[in-house]
From TrEMBL, chains A, B:
Residues 19-117 form the HTH hxlR-type domain. It comes from Litorihabitans aurantiacus. Keywords: DNA-binding, Transcription, Transcription regulation. This is Transcriptional regulator. GO terms for molecular function: DNA binding. Signal peptide: none annotated. It comes from the Bacteria. SUPFAM superfamilies: Winged helix' DNA-binding domain (SSF46785). InterPro entries: ArsR-like_HTH (IPR011991), HTH_HxlR (IPR002577), WH-like_DNA-bd_sf (IPR036388), WH_DNA-bd_sf (IPR036390).
Length: 124, 124
């Protein structure tokens, strides 16, 4: 067991107040992270391709999401020295490990949307 | 394939701009949802028990999270006619189906926290 007093980097626990896994949960559970990681699942993509796949994402939000994923080592950004320069985003090995859990979330949302809407409607 | 123009309630798709699964993803990926559903995994709990398990959650945030989960039909709130009144929160059948995907997220965060911290440190 961990407590806030004995936070041990080897015993991460998001139930503990200051554990950094809690902020990481926010990051990976974010709707844009889920969709961007999903968009990158099949291979490297340019910014414009991701933006098309994640319908309606703003340029600002997509930039912010990709930068955060880069900072966390989940996505790489590669600039190819061409004219005009080509920039591609790609999941890292660690980023790939996130694909299955996030796909499960996506599938849960799609499968249970009717039940959730029914529950909301029942409450009026 | 769905598009925003042909949004079909039978074909939910969070990659489509106005699909309600996108907002549902936000809800279920939220750190407090993940931890509260986790806290309720082993059976009904009182507010104070959940608050203790989810170390550091504010009363306001916990109330808000539980109400949202209730509204979506994922958690029930039962008040027992005792003195003092006892109130318990419990996962519904649908709420239980969310447990595995959210546990996978939790486990991902715990497992990959070191890699993410190393990536952040490497960028200085």
């Amino acid at each position: 067991m961990t407590t806030t007093d004995t936070l041990d980097p080897l015993v991460w626990d998001p139930y503990v107040r200051d554990c950094p896994t809690r902020a990481l949960l926010d990051r990976i559970g974010d709707r844009w992270t889920v969709l961007v990681i999903g968009a990158l699942a099949d291979g490297p993509q340019r910014f414009s391709q991701i933006a098309r796949r994640v319908d309606g994402v703003s340029q600002k939000m997509l930039t912010q999401t990709l930068r955060a994923l880069e900072a966390d080592g989940l996505v790489t950004r590669t600039q190819y020295p061409e004219i005009p320069p080509r920039v591609e985003y790609e999941l890292t090995a660690v980023g790939h490990t996130l694909r299955d859990p996030l796909r499960a979330l996506e599938e849960w949302a799609v499968t249970h949307m009717p039940a959730v809407l029914a529950a909301r409607a029942a409450r009026g």
